[in-house]
Amino acid sequence: MIRIRAGASPFRKRLLALGLPLAWGGAAVTYKLACPVAQQSGLGARTVSSAVFFAVGTGLVLHVRHALLRELREARKVAGAAQSVLLRPLPPRVEGLNVAAAQLSADRGAAIGGDLYEVIATEHGVRVVMGDVRGHGIGAIATAAAVLGSFREAVHDEPELGGVLRRLERALARHLRERARAEHPSAGAEPEHPVAEEFVTVLLLEIGPDGELRGLNCGHPWPYRLSGPRVEPLARADPLPPLGPFPLPPELDTEHCGHLLPGETLFLHTDGAEDARDSRGRFFPLGEVLAQCLRDSVATPQAVLGSVFTALLRHTAGAPQDDVALLVLMNDRQPRHPPGARGTARPATTHPQPTNHL
């Protein structure tokens, strides 16, 4: 018995894919050479021959179209799996925080772009990153992967947010050097300027068990705090420059942003949200939309996320020009009791479900 090795499978698939076109072609050649009608020159014979060859051509076109669509579906499936590993779905609850997140890529057909976010519970508190890589496309996705990979390790190792940020800076610089060597191998082992004008805006937040908020901001929009009927920026301090063009200062002063009290919500976003324009060039009024959510009693993070994305797509006629990522965190913890009282905070879910999709 003849055994086909696993390595021969692509060849067999290719051969099977060619089977139908070869059959169609063989039928056409057989008709032309062997059918008596094909040898005649009358109008009826020519009409029959034209119909035969038209049917053959149509069959070949439909077969090729079907094969291309099948390959496209498989490629999208693989790309979607790879992208979900990079920007993995967040659990709906993290250490007493209700979480909802989603993003929209400006590249048609892409599941993600150059925006990044992550929420991780650590022994130092819940740590959050929201970032935006300059540009979009494959290059931006690779840069986002480098930054996210470093963040997922650093948040557990570094006791201070400043240490996490420096780890992200080193990871970005290393990624840009490797990318420059791959794109310009003649430039030498260590290009002086790895990739010109490449940068990443990064916002780091740390939420302590008592709701204390601390942050470091490198060129990213500050999030909004939704408290009762009020919508206000979490902080107004000038951010540091984005990561990439300039080194971090020797001393990193973490911004103390008060406390996220039970019932309060943080709304994090990339600049693609506030910079989105309508057909008349007007910017998307993100603050007004959030205030309307509060007036309409849209309370849960998932509902806020859906309302903002609906308004954004309506504002841009369904075609935003830049990647947009939104992350909503609501403090759903029970108020702390005096010492000696039993805590009633609910534990995080053991079966997290994706929150990336509206």
List keywords for this structure.
alpha+beta; 8 helices; 41% helix
Element layout with pairings:
Layout: H1 9-34, H2 36-39, H3 43-86, E1 93-94, E2 97-104, E3 115-122, E4 125-133, H4 138-157, H5 161-183, E5 200-207, E6 212-218, E7 224-227, E8 230-233, E9 255-259, E10 265-269, H6 271-274, H7 286-295, H8 301-315, E11 324-331
Helix pairs in contact: 1-3, 4-5, 7-8
Question: How would you portray this structure in words?
Answer:
The chain has 358 residues and is α+β, with helices and mostly antiparallel strands. It contains eight helices and eleven strands. The chain has helices spanning 9-34, 36-39, 43-86, 138-157, 161-183, 271-274, 286-295, 301-315, and strands at residues 93-94, 97-104, 115-122, 125-133, 200-207, 212-218, 224-227, 230-233, 255-259, 265-269, 324-331. The strands form two sheets. Strands 1-2-11-10-7-8 form a six-stranded antiparallel sheet. Strands 3-4-5-6-9 form a five-stranded antiparallel sheet, with helices on one face. α1 (9-34) runs antiparallel to α3, α4 runs antiparallel to α5 (161-183) and α7 (286-295) crosses α8. The longest helix is centred in the first third of the chain and has 44 residues, at 43-86. The radius of gyration is 28 Å and the shape is elongated. Mean pLDDT is 79; it is low at 1-8 and 338-355.
Terminal Cα span:
53 Å
Strand order of the largest sheet: 1-2-11-10-7-8
Please outline the major beta sheet: 6 strands, antiparallel
Would you tell me the structural class of the helices and strands?
alpha+beta
Strand segment tally: 11
Oligomeric state of the chains present here: single chain
Principal-axes shape call: elongated
Q: Return the average pLDDT rounded to an integer.
A: 79
Given the structure, what is the number of helices?
Answer: 8
> What proportion of the residues is helical, as a percent range?
40-55%
Order of helices and strands: HHHEEEEHHEEEEEEHHHE
Unreliable runs: 1-8, 338-355
Q: Roughly how many Å is the radius of gyration?
A: 28 Å
Task: Bin the strand percentage.
Answer: 15-25%
